[in-house]
Amino acid sequence: MIGTMDETRSARVTRADVRAALMWALERDRDALLAHRAAVHSSKSDLTRRRADKALVEQWRARRPDNGKGSTSRE
User: Fold this and answer.
1) How many domains does the structure of the chain reveal?
2) What is the Cα–Cα distance from 48 to 66, expressed in whole angstroms?
3) For residues 52 and 10, what is the distance between their CA atoms, to the nearest angstrom?
4) CA–CA dist 64, 44 (Å, integer)
5) Residue 30 is assigned to a structural domain of this protein
6) Assigned domain for 68 exists
7) What is the pTM of this model?
């Protein structure tokens, strides 16, 4: 399955973003962490993993004190 142009462009998140979002979820949002884990482990599809990563990173960015603006390496 191929995503739309908008989806593929916005789905690109860095490994650092995903790692930071996972660490945030581990410390502050267990439900988000479990949802990501369930999505990733329920399918071997790379697209499914990218979508789960994107969703987690979006949640993390939305809940960060600076609302995701600026560098992701500060955390």
Assistant:
1) 1
2) 28
3) 13
4) 30
5) yes
6) no
7) 0.71
Q: Copy the structure tokens of residue 46.
A: 């790379």
pLDDT reported for residue 70: 52
Q: Tokens 């979508």: give the residue.
A: 51
The pLDDT tens digits along the chain (75 residues) read 455 554 444 547 999 999 999 999 999 999 999 999 999 998 889 999 999 999 999 999 999 877 645 544 444
Residues 40 and 49: beta-carbon distance below 8 Å:
yes
Residue indicated by tokens 């267990």: 30
Residue 47 lies in domain: 14-62
Does residue 8 lie in a domain region?
Answer: no
Q: What is the pLDDT of residue 18?
A: 97
Q: What's the CA gap between 7 and 63, in Å, rounded? A: 22
